[in-house]
Design brief:
Blueprint: H1 18-37, H2 44-62
Helix pairs in contact: 1-2
Length: 88
C-alpha cells in the first residue's frame, strides 16, 4: 500500500528569510530535545517563539516593498576613499 505525499506548500505559510529559517530550525531542535527528555517537560515557550517568528514573516509579507528614489543605490558612489581608506 503506497501513500501519496502532499508536496504542496501551505498558501498561508509565509516566505522566511535565512535567519528566520535558522531560528525556527534551532527552536524545533530544542523542542525535540525536550520531548526526548520526557512528557513532563514543557516546550510551550519554544512553540510561542516559532509562532512569533512566523507571525513576523506574515506581517513582512503584507507590507509592500518601498522602491528606491531615482534608481540610485543608497551607497556612496563619489569615487573618493573614505576616512579609513586614506593613502599612507
Amino acid at each position: 500500500m503506497t501513500v501519496a505525499r502532499n508536496t504542496e506548500q501551505d498558501p498561508d505559510y509565509p516566505q522566511l528569510t535565512a535567519r528566520e529559517h535558522a531560528q525556527v530550525a534551532w527552536a524545533v531542535a530544542r523542542m525535540a530535545k525536550r520531548c526526548a527528555a520526557g512528557e513532563q517537560v514543557d516546550r510551550a515557550d519554544l512553540e510561542r517563539k516559532v509562532d512569533r517568528i512566523i507571525h513576523g514573516a506574515r506581517q513582512r509579507r503584507e507590507v509592500p516593498v518601498a522602491t528606491s528614489r531615482g534608481g540610485r543605490s543608497s551607497a556612496k558612489t563619489s569615487g573618493r576613499p573614505g576616512p579609513f581608506l586614506s593613502p599612507l
